[in-house]
Design a protein that fits this description.
The chain is an alpha+beta fold. It contains eight helices and 17 strands.
Length: about 325
């Protein structure tokens, strides 16, 4: 691993490259190796190098009837990139947030130390929860090298339906609402899915999330989802995850995306930029409430601020006190 440059940027498949704002200009790009290190099907854990694509991992687990419910937008995304961006998949309602799937991480700090956090099995995780800390860190704490992930049985049947209200369903995997229709994803055995969806309209094609060159992800309290949807202007395309608190928004202009962010703030939420946006946008739009704590963590893991400075709104990347 070459960490001799003044500033380094971890690079995966670039499928989530715009999340939270662009990496610092002129940084030295570093890539993690790829490949599966160990797969314990009986223990339902898998250890992979961070450069492994989701598609490769998913294909291996499928042979044993298992999966890791990461659900990236692109199957070409690397495991390291998925974890660094911290974007939970649309099946979070059933399978939990992204950080719940990570048991152990190994990473290289900005000063070249190899650090392990967590444990390779579900029962022996002790100490500080570094795996969860790295989820969503956007490469600002170090270079993720490998991760041990929690597997689960792969559902035999996975089908989408259009419904009036999915709150009566038993543990749906996802509830998507676009202001007009609610779509529900049911997973399980054939009998389970059929019994729940007896009076529902099946969808032959899964519903699409809001997409476009200008894209973001609004996070609010689950009870405010419908208010946010009704408040968004007509030039913002959106789709909400009911029961979770996430609204996927997209627009054709940076100005329209900025309006969506204002709506999120009005409803005591945030919007993380996924793609596009104004050039000087840090990805969040207003100071984070835990900013002081985040800076202390950054100083502890990366005292010279060499790892993706400026990627999170921790301090200006051009500040000589924070970037060499």
């Amino acid at each position: 691993m070459d960490l001799s440059g003044p500033v380094v940027t971890p690079v995966g498949a670039r499928t989530h490259w715009g999340v939270g704002g662009p990496p610092p200009a002129g940084a030295s790009e570093v890539r993690a190796p790829e490949g599966v290190i160990a797969y314990e099907a009986a223990d339902m854990t898998v250890t992979v190098r961070a450069g492994t694509t989701f598609a490769a991992l998913d294909a291996l687990l499928a042979e044993h009837g298992q999966e890791v419910a990461l659900d990236p937008r692109s199957p070409d995304a690397t495991i390291g990139g998925i974890l660094a961006c911290g974007l939970s998949g649309i099946r979070r309602l059933r399978h939990g947030p992204l950080r719940d799937h990570v048991l152990e991480v190994r990473f290289v700090t900005g000063y070249g130390a190899l650090v392990k956090g967590g444990g390779p099995t579900v029962k022996n995780v002790t100490g500080y929860d570094l795996p969860r800390l790295f989820v969503g860190s956007l490469g600002t704490l170090g270079m993720l090298m490998q991760a041990t992930l929690r597997c689960r049985p792969r559902a035999r049947v996975s089908r989408w339906f259009t419904v009036e209200d999915a709150r009566a369903f038993h543990r749906p995997s996802c509830r998507l609402w676009n202001g007009t229709h609610e779509h529900v994803l049911l997973e399980g055995t054939e009998a389970d899915v059929e019994s729940q969806a007896r009076d529902c309209t099946p969808l032959l094609v899964p519903p699409a999330l809001a997409d476009g060159a200008q894209r973001g992800r609004v996070s609010v309290a689950p009870g405010r989802i419908r208010d946010v949807g009704h408040a968004l202007p007509s030039d913002v395309r959106w789709c909400a995850e009911l029961g979770v608190g996430t609204v996927h928004v997209a627009a054709d202009s940076a100005a329209a995306l900025a309006v969506a962010r204002d709506v999120a703030h009005t409803h005591d939420g945030w919007m993380l930029r996924e793609a596009g946006g104004a050039p000087d946008d840090d990805g969040y739009g207003r100071p984070l409430p835990n900013l002081a704590l985040m800076r202390r963590i950054k100083d502890a893991f990366d005292p010279d601020w060499r790892c993706n400075p400026g990627r999170l709104p921790l301090g200006p990347s051009g500040d000589p006190e924070r970037a060499r």
